[in-house]
Design goal:
Blueprint lengths: L22 H31 L3 E2 L2 E2 L3 H6 L11 H22 L8 E9 L14 H14 L3 E7 L9 H4 L2 H5 L5 E5 L1 H4 L3 H12 L6 E4 L5 H9 L4 E3 L2 H10 L8 H7 L18 H4 L26 H29 L5 H15 L1 H4 L10 H4 L6 H6 L3 E4 L5 H4 L22 E2 L2 H4 L8 E4 L20 E6 L5 E4 L2 H7 L10 E5 L18 H4 L5 E4 L2 E2 L2 E5 L2 E5 L14 E6 L6 E9 L1
Parallel strand pairs: 3-4, 3-5, 5-6, 6-7, 9-10
Antiparallel strand pairs: 1-2, 8-19, 10-11, 11-19, 12-18, 13-17, 13-19, 14-15, 14-18, 16-17
Helix pairs in contact: 1-4, 3-13, 3-14, 4-13
Length: 597
């Protein structure tokens, strides 16, 4: 039977010998108390730590912490703030029960039950300008993981934001390949690079929602409330990070205006030094500006010289605050999930209880999973092409090969083979492809499309820390001496994502490599727009032998067409074989992604 679970409020009395908890739950309470009473106090001071624990009143009653208020204050998504909370709580209850039942079966050799958080976003979300470990998703993982582990759950974060990237087709069409198939919570933070593109956001969310995990969603955006509400109405937990409330919290910390660096170091805890100055975070006096980016004491340390330290990129303290807010939010839901198990599981069989929770979760999303939802915000350009269908592009399974990093299909060896347990913090644990050199690009003919990486963007001068993991790796499409081939889906991709070949209708999408790092104006054939690619036979693509003769551009990528239209016939194995070629000497082609529906 399931061990009795109880999570009381985290204070010294709840940890006493009279508390009806197991040793495991006692460890959970101790771990959570350590975080609140020691860690936050050390980082933010006694007054600052108290801000995280205050319970803002609503209608005369306490409603939880400031973190809960920040994540659940949008009435336009969830009027009474209970439905989404309940769905995420149920998901955590399922995880806890699965972990308990796996542990109770001594004959089973199972890995710890995981809860996976994945962040998608732009350069600010990726932590550009900081040490990578300082980005808010890494901070979330650092402090929430020990508390999850105390009850036997493995908390994994995937901070997979990419610089200069919006919520566009290249990412939304490749959600399992970029973030993985096992994500429990998606955090959307593309606001700065997505503009007002509602259909871009909708497509990203709908594709992510198709995962078997029935994920919850968090949004860091002042816009797209309609998309959030629709996702909630389709049966998913949806939360909105309220920037106004976040800013209000940030402004309540002690001010640093007029203080020297020496005074700040003596009188203020580290996470708020220089944070509140004359105008906004780390802005005002020169002393405040000096605290925005962390530095090693040695002024000659190479890691102090970092790219991307622009004004629109938040510094380490701003990232830390968001990370702690998200950590506290998750720990509160986990607290509630444990209490619910304690009050409901004692009178019933744990397996029966688990089965009932899973059934409820499936019922919430039954219509969505049956594809009975309307595409509310379609791609307008697709609507104008009778051969193309938004229903297919939004609802139907597809395959994607993407070279860009970070991408789970790279770390799991799905794209290039190799180990299946690569670590995004360690380049040696997965196949990186080939370093970009002129000798390799124009050397021996390449039979297959090769993955390339460009040394200059990796900031390899810093050896003590990782500075970023988002890199614009790319596929080498063609040179005059080679006609490389790419087959989609590969055997490894079918193994990883399932066999949907019979459902594919033949739509093919292709995304160029953006003209940033690695771009050689003299030698790269594909320069600034897709029209340059197919003129005068300079660059050609065939799909299962059919020559590409036309295309339509959709949010940064193109859907290809042959003489027979936009549907390419499958080969006898239900797959698509791409060949890329050029007849121009000393030219090469780069692209990042191909997709088939």
């Amino acid at each position: 039977t399931l061990l009795s679970l109880c999570l009381c409020s985290v204070d010294d009395r709840s940890l006493g010998s009279g508390s009806p908890v197991t040793d495991e739950m006692l460890q959970f309470q101790k771990s959570k108390a350590q975080y609140y009473k020691t860690t936050l106090r050390k980082l933010y001071g006694a007054e600052g730590a108290a801000l995280f624990q205050q319970e803002p009143a609503q209608n005369g009653t306490a409603s939880g912490s400031i973190a809960k208020s920040i994540m659940m204050s949008s009435k336009s998504i969830d009027e009474d703030n209970s439905v989404s909370w309940g769905r995420l709580k149920r998901k955590l209850m399922i995880k806890i029960l699965q972990s308990k039942l796996n542990k109770s079966d001594k004959d089973k050799k199972t890995k710890p039950t995981k809860f996976v958080w994945a962040t998608g976003g732009h350069s600010a979300a990726a932590g550009h300008g900081n040490l990578f470990k300082e980005c808010y998703t890494m901070v979330l993982g650092q402090f929430a993981k020990p508390v999850f582990e105390a009850i036997g759950l493995d908390f994994e974060v995937r901070p997979f934001a990419m610089g200069a990237t919006g919520s566009t087709l290249e990412i939304s069409g490749c959600v399992p390949q970029v973030f993985g198939t096992d994500v429990d919570f998606f955090y959307w933070d593309y606001g700065m690079t997505t503009g007002s593109c509602t259909h871009c956001v909708s497509h990203w969310v709908q594709r992510a929602a198709l995962l078997e995990t029935i994920p919850a969603f968090g949004f860091d955006s002042r816009h797209f409330a309609d998309v959030m509400k629709e996702t909630r109405d389709q049966g998913f937990g949806v939360f909105h990070f309220n920037r106004r409330e976040h800013d209000t919290l940030a402004k309540t910390f002690a001010k640093s205006s007029g203080m020297s660096l020496e005074e700040m170091n003596q009188k203020m805890p580290p996470n708020i030094r220089g944070m509140n100055c004359d105008k906004r975070d780390n802005v005002g006096s020169e002393n405040c500006k000096d605290t925005k980016w962390s530095k090693y004491d040695d002024p000659n340390e190479p890691c102090n010289k970092r790219m991307h330290q622009q004004g629109w990129h938040p510094g380490w303290q701003a990232h830390a605050l968001i990370g702690h807010i998200l950590a506290q939010f998750l720990l509160e839901v986990l607290d509630d999930a444990l209490r619910e198990i304690h009050t409901n599981a004692q009178a019933s069989d744990p397996q029966v209880f688990l089965d009932s929770l899973v059934k409820q979760q499936l019922q919430d999303v039954a219509d969505f999973r049956a594809k009975k939802f309307k595409v509310t915000w379609p791609f307008e350009k697709i609507e104008k092409k009778p051969e193309l269908s938004n229903d297919v592009i939004f609802k139907q399974p597809n395959y994607c090969s993407i070279a860009r990093m970070p991408a789970q299909m790279r770390y799991e060896g799905i794209l290039l083979g190799g180990p299946k347990d690569g670590d995004f913090m360690d380049y040696s644990t997965y196949d990186r492809g080939h370093k970009q050199t002129e000798e390799f690009v124009f050397g021996a003919p390449h039979e297959k499309v090769e993955v390339m990486w460009t040394e200059g963007v990796y900031q390899a001068h810093c050896t003590k820390d990782m500075l970023q993991i988002d890199h614009p790796d790319w596929f080498l499409g063609a040179t005059q001496n080679t006609t490389p081939t790419l087959i989609l889906p590969s055997d490894r991709e079918i193994e990883a994502y399932g066999d949907y070949t019979q459902q594919l209708v033949g739509y093919v999408s292709y995304c160029r490599a953006w003209p940033g790092a690695g771009f050689d104006k003299k030698k790269e054939l594909e320069v600034l727009n897709y029209d340059d690619s197919f003129d005068n036979g300079g660059y050609n693509i065939t799909v299962n032998g059919h020559l590409v003769v036309d295309f339509i551009e959709v949010e940064g990528c193109i859907f290809l067409a042959h003489k027979g239209g936009y549907k390419f016939p499958k080969n006898n194995q239900g797959r698509f074989e791409f060949q890329f070629f050029t007849n121009l000497a000393d030219k090469y082609v780069r692209f990042t992604t191909v997709m088939v529906w």
